[in-house]
Amino acid sequence: MESKINSKEEVLDKRIVAAREAAGFSITEATQKLGFKNYQTLSAIEKGARKINAHELIMIARLYGRSLDYFLESDIAPDPVPLWRKTTKTDVNQVQRQFLSFLENYSSLEHLLGLKRRWKDIQKNYDRDDFSDNGFERADKLGADIHNFLDLGSRPSLNLFNVLENKLRFKILHLPLGDGASGASVVDNILGVGILINANDAPWRRNFDLAHELFHVITWHVFSPEEIGNGTKKTRPEQYADGFASSLLLPEAHLLDALKETATDNEVRLIDIIELAKDFGVSTEAILWRLVNLEILKRSKAQKVLDNKKFRDLDRNMRRRLYKSDRPSKFPSRFISLAYRCLMEGKISRGTFAEYLEIDRAEIDNYLDDAGFAEGNYAKIATA
């Protein structure tokens, strides 16, 4: 009996160390955030020289973005590994743990409500050979095919997020990532599909990044992690993802129709490029290279426009208001709605609800009232 107890304690000690390292905290940083007087206290806990009490374990679980089961269960699945787009020096461990914790919470809500997942509907039977010859053409065609499959309409950027969240039940999180990271994606049989987008980016950049990550989701089993790279270089699969995103968000027929309406005497002016970018919810750079690929513009002219400082200033000034007014919420509306449902149906506690939505427990009633989810209202909705 004693050996079993010691074995459990050893597992707990190792899990505490592993959770801290996976969350990207040094022992000094963790000590400060946990409120211990010195690092020796946490060090002793990690080495098994000091027993941890329940309150301390709860604090550690919250800081490291883990459930208590992670520390107490004998068998746990390893963390899935997301694909990142970032600079070489950027440490994404803390953000990655936030991302995975969100996916775990979201998945738990779906499980409690018995909801089916639909993300496999988007994955096609492609393999590596499909991209070995004319890979860019394949990516372009795939973008057009997925545009039709999802019925995204003439302005796909307006509908993509909603379709992925509600039709395919992707789990999409917005976090302020700073300049070092653009986003990430992950596909996991337990957690489903997760996409992380930089909340600090302009809306047109976020639209393109969402489409870019969608390519990786569709081709998750086509390219190896080594082929895709660590996100710091434009590898061939990353270039395919950009081509796919361009085709998806700028469908040829709709773009050419808009161009006819905008251009004068078949002459594409600088102002036309900006207007098209605003209309389709993408960057002017995306518009220019799409027109190059459609053989509407020559590559040299597109590059000349991009190098034009007056054009860049005009573009920035014309869309400055859009950038300031369109700030995304951290959690998607579907995640919040599922949390409401689980709370009202008694499937999660108020404490869990507050933890999932990162609010104080004292704020819960006001939070529910603001969203129209007061208990009386929910009862009427649920029985209607």
Number of helices: 20
Mean pLDDT: 88
Going across the major beta sheet, what is the strand order?
A: 1-3-4-2
Strand % is 5-15%
Find the count of extended strands (DSSP E, 2+ residues).
4
List the helices and strands and how they pair.
Blueprint lengths: L1 H21 L4 H8 L4 H9 L6 H11 L3 H5 L10 E4 L6 H20 L22 H15 L10 H8 L3 E5 L5 E8 L3 E7 L4 H16 L6 H4 L7 H14 L2 H11 L7 H11 L3 H10 L5 H8 L2 H17 L7 H12 L5 H8 L6 H7 L4 H9 L1
Parallel strand pairs: 2-4
Antiparallel strand pairs: 1-3, 3-4
How would you characterize the overall build of this protein?
By secondary structure, the protein is an alpha+beta fold. It has four domains: 2-72, Orthogonal Bundle (434 Repressor (Amino-terminal Domain)), CATH 1.10.260; 83-249, Arc Repressor Mutant, subunit A; 252-325, no CATH class; 333-383, no CATH class. It has helices at 2-22, 27-34, 39-47, 54-64, 68-72, 93-112, 135-149, 160-167, 203-218, 225-228, 236-249, 252-262, 270-280, 284-293, 299-306, 309-325, 333-344, 350-357, 364-370, 375-383; strands spanning 83-86, 171-175, 181-188, 192-198. Strands 1-3-4-2 form a four-stranded mixed beta sheet, sandwiched between helices. A hairpin with a 3-residue loop joins strand 3 (181-188) and strand 4 (192-198). Helix 7 packs parallel to helix 11 (236-249) and helix 9 (203-218) crosses helix 11.
Task: List the defining traits of the structure above.
4 domains, 434 Repressor (Amino-terminal Domain), Arc Repressor Mutant, subunit A, alpha+beta, 4-stranded mixed β-sheet, disordered N terminus
